[in-house]
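Fold this sequence, please.
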Amino acid sequence: MALYEHVFLVRQDVSAQQVETIADQYKAVIESNGGAVKKVENWGLRALAYRVKKNRKAHYVLFNLDAPHAAVAEMERQQSLSEDILRIMTIRVDELEEGPSAMLQKRDRDDRDGAPAGRGDRGGFRGGDRGGPRRDRAPRRDEAGDME
């Protein structure tokens, strides 16, 4: 059977438990059509690059699939009918990745760095590259006072 990586985005106002229920629902669709879900990863609630159906955030879920095309097509058809699913993407791959995906590894690395939630990708408020904290700067001289 063919191997696929499938990512789908669930609306932000759905709870984490409901996301697991939705993932189980689509996992059952794959298994009932002769396929197997090798790995399920919940990447959590993440910010979207742009609004999708009036949502700024979405729950991301990854499936690694070993399934026939018909099973994947049926799952995608059902997801396209669901109001909770914002976007889907399926990619055929030569082999499935073992261990945690790059997204989970990145999240673990960000957690260790102590980055504030939601701003770690862009540098956020960590000081950036504009000269560091203000306390290190020399005090401003009052130019009006120098003229007198």
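The CA atoms of residues 8 and 88 lie 4 Å apart. Strands lie at 2-11, 36-52, 55-67, 85-93.
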